[in-house]
Amino acid sequence: MRLGGRLVLLTAVTILLGGPAVATAPLASATGAGQGFVRCADLSPGTPEVVYLYPFGNPSHPMMLMHQGYGSVTEYMPVSAGQYTLAMRPPGASASSPPTVSTSFMVSAGSNYTVASIGSESSRRLKVLTDEMATAAGSKVLVRVIQASVKQPQVTVSVGSDVLARELGFGLATAYREVQPGTPTVTFSASGGRAVMGVKLGAGSVHTIVVLDGVSGLKIDNLTDAAGSVDMPNGGAATGFGGTAPGAGGPGLAPWLVTLAGGVLLALAGGFGLRRSRRTAPAASPAGAAAAEHAGQAVAPPASR
């Protein structure tokens, strides 16, 4: 293969295997006992901001997440155990610009985390919560509460006849409490409003009940932290990731990109090989061409009358 062909192949390898999507693969390549799970919740009213997650001290290749509005929650993302930084920036802002808000936290193997943005648009803050898995619930249901209402400073929350929190302050979260499975009514009450919603709580499941501000008062959001039938965490009201993000528990994009790179390399190599064979193939002599034409006429069947 000539120098030009080698340069093209090298460029293809560099583009396919060194781009931003593969650079984020370490965040998604965690498997087995060495991984944890992280999701992000937008509990701040106002314009949704872009979320960047990257290993602590290495912001050059972040995983970018897009929120779809107030109350949205991403699916859980598998990441290798270690320390991470989560930063939020306005849409369209450079990834290297100062974040609106940021926090660093440690991901332990086998643990799940929710990083929630809480507060008004001008005073957002990030709260890191450790989530429970379905195995911790047993045959009961585990429920906790996050008080994210900006308009109501204190809220009392009940699930059926169980009072989970009395006058829970803004920005606070309760510990998980055991409740009976079923379809109880969740009630939020405050000095300036009240909200009621029926929820389905399956045996062995884990839930986070969020207090939000609705158009005409308080709003209830029920997030599924883990389902009773599986140990893999679910994403609740999932809004998805950007184009470089893997699905929860999935292998990420690296295997697909490697396969694509191999296909492109084979195609390029075949193309250069074909061009080379065409250049080096000897031209047929006039005598040989005439002999071939004569042989073709000799075997041709006579025309029918």
Give a short summary of the structure.
With 305 residues, the protein is an alpha+beta fold.
Describe this structure in words.
With 305 residues, the protein is an alpha+beta fold. Helices cover 21% and strands 35% of the residues. The chain has five helices and 16 strands. The strands form four sheets. It has a four-stranded mixed sheet with strand order 4-1-7-8. A four-stranded antiparallel sheet has the order 3-2-5-6, with no helix packed on it. Helix 1 packs antiparallel against helix 4. It is globular and about 50 Å long.
CATH architecture descriptor name of the largest domain: Sandwich
**Class based on secondary structure composition and strand pairing:** alpha+beta
Strand content: 35-45%
Q: Count every beta strand, where a strand is a DSSP E run of 2 or more residues.
A: 16
Question: Could you state the CATH homologous superfamily of the largest domain?
Answer: Carboxypeptidase-like, regulatory domain
Mean of residue pLDDT?
Answer: 73
Largest sheet: 4 strands, mixed
Number of helices: 5
Low-confidence stretches: 3-31, 234-269, 280-305
First-last Cα distance: 55 Å
Indicate the CATH class of the largest domain.
Mainly Beta
Shape: globular
Q: Which sequence of strands runs across the widest sheet?
A: 4-1-7-8
CATH topology of the largest domain: Immunoglobulin-like
Relative helix content: 10-25%
The number of domains is: 3
